[in-house]
Request: fold
Amino acid sequence: MRRNLTALFASLLLATAPLLTIGSAAEAQNGPLRIEITDGVIEPLPYAVPSFLPETPAAAELANQITRVIAEDLSGTGLFREIPATAHISTVSDFNAPVRFADWKAVNAQALITGAVSVNGKQLTVRFRGYDIFADNELGAGLQFSGTTDGWRRMAHKVADAIYSRITGESGYFDSRVVFVSETGPKNDRRKRLAIMDYDGAGVQYLTNSAALVLAPRFSPTGDRVLYTSYESGFPQIHVLDVGKVQRRVLSADKGIMSFAPRFAPDGNTVVYSQAEGGNTDLYTMDIATGARKRLTSAPSIETAPSYSPDGSQIVFESDRSGTPQLYVMAASGGEARRVSFGKGRYGTPVWSPRGDLIAFTKQSKGRFHIGVMRLDGSEERLLTASFLDEGPSWSPNGRVIMFTRETQGANGRALLYSVDILGRNLKPVRTPDGASDPAWSPLQK
Amino acid sequence: MGLQTGTKFSLAGHGLLVGWVAFGAWLPSEPLPLPVQEVAVISAEEFARLSQQIQAPEITETPSSLTPPETSLAPPDLPLRPETRPDTSIPDATAEPVVDAPVPVLPEPEPEPEVADTLPEPVTPPETLPESPAIVPSQPVPELVRPAERVAPVPVEAPEEEVAIGDLVQPEVNPDEGALSEQEVQEATAPEAASDRIVTEANESDEAEPAPPVTAPLTSVRPKTRPRRPAPAEVAETTPAAPQEDQSSAIEDALAAAIAGGGEVAAPEPSGPPLTVGEKDALRVSVSKCWNVGSLSTEALKTTVEVAVSLDPDGRPKTSTIRMMSSTGGSTNAAKQAYEAARRAIIRCGAKGFSLPSEKYDHWRDIVMTFNPEKMRIK
Reply:
């Protein structure tokens, strides 16, 4: 009996031996060790920007100011974190001197920005270099900007855009402006006027007075003009305003016909807008030069808030043809529209991303408002915000950030501008002197 | 039948004899005739050999703790001998002529008497210093197995081995070695041999030279894996040269190569046990801590890159060997940004060396890390 058991055990061992061998062979390593990393961290990238060197006595103050604007631009994105100057081990005393990478590694700086500023009369010159500390190398070649001293902020923004682009791989958005509706007074007597400012809230200028209600300003593709809706005549009409000359004119002057929600086509020559006529609201296009109009929709429902795709071939708009406001996409020339929003709630104010891959929208659901994004087919809907009232998203020039209006609740409620990363991070208010609503982000300035 | 009868008689006779012997031995417990006869046959020298051979296994056990056995063994020898002597020596009549004195000493403490054999001449040491100097050294030395030979073939064999041992352990042995002089040592240095042993033991604790011979057989298996390593070195030599010259161009070249599908690396096929799952996870976690995708563009966040790196034996990445093998899901520019983030992760978290088992260096000398940000897009 014992022999039988022993024989059985031995036979089992022999039978399983090949399997064990196969298993170990499967674990055997061929070639280099391979591992897959799927979990990382999402942290602001630490960088250092020592105060730019003034190369002329008159440049001392501007050098510091430019440095501060650059740091605010980069840190304001939420993607970067400035290492304070007090933590710096190394100092930059010569713009052309080699960088001591070890000193910057010691403070965990992963990027370094050095620069020099010179002023000759009203001529301002800014030079800068970026460094990838852990690569012991420059972040591309150094650049130099020249202009007048009045434009020092723009030059600082351009430096920040260049650094941002070199680190993230996408274009920046700092040298851009925002047109918005400035609001003053209580809710029951609110005065609104158009204003324009740098993207960061600096240099606010008013484009209209507060005599008439203005709504929904929109930049032209080149940023030199603004479309907006004004109640100056008693009912909504579309106006176009030359930003440089601050001159405006009425685009649609048909009395008794309400036109609103205008937006430029990518070519800058056509405007798509909503027109309410006979109790029905539909989408129209108008040639700015000739005034020729074309009706795009003829449904008995309300179609409004149109927005062109970047290539100008399609239009996304809001319609309640299904019973509740939803988002639809159709060809720029009109025709059949396909619904793209299917979530619970009401969708409105869609805006096509400058990259063309996403649609930003306002969503009302369960008594709260959200700013969200979705793909062109309605998939991957992602709500970025939630509050008492969020609405009116506008894309940054690079499609990375969305600016919108947030209004607080109550009699003393106030509208302010906020911005948020399209991943839902870095939600923050935009500095404005008064209340603000209906932001529209310009393209990058040239 | 007759045979059976004969065998029966034989068995009966032997049984009686055995029974008689047994009863004779057990009933009269005191006389113990049989042991006395055996004792008489064995000589002191033979016992010495036997006892030393028996001691050999004991010696192997003691190496770890030398002192305890010494104290424990030494004392029992001395006290037991006097006690046993009176009991056995007196009753046996046959054994009387053989030897009186040695017999009682040898039989009972069979294993130990060896010490007594060598010592009887210098009997004095056991008496005066049974505990520390004399006994202690002699026992531990035989532990090395060599002393046993020394004791028996005193003149010839011992010196050779002693020389070898002395070389390993002590400078004190030098005089013996230098001589090559087995003869000299043999006779005159017999006591010195004992002293050599003592010294070696003491040095063992200081130097650990005796350990090597013990561990040698254990390590002999591992060397088999190491000889094969030329292939990876060649790969590392060819690639690093480019990155040092121009980082940007190197990246572009890597991208082009990756797009062209030429990113494969020759497999060095390391042998030996591979990294465990836990060890791989530890490496993965350590790199993940520094993989910061916060500053990546949305397109780069959709780009998966394979990055190859070679590590030094201390676990630090060789910066010049970091290169992108391939990328998927994004444009060239996005792949470049994704690669830069991965590269920073490797350099930053590898600055102090990744915690990897050094004995498996062959397995992690070259690593290909796949950075897949799919999950990070959701966060």
Q: What stands out?
A: Residues 13-27 of chain A have pLDDT under 50 and may be disordered. Residues 177-441 of chain A form a domain with the Neuraminidase fold (CATH 2.120.10.30). Chain A has two domains: 45-166, 177-441. Residues 313 and 332 of chain A are 5 Å apart (CA to CA).
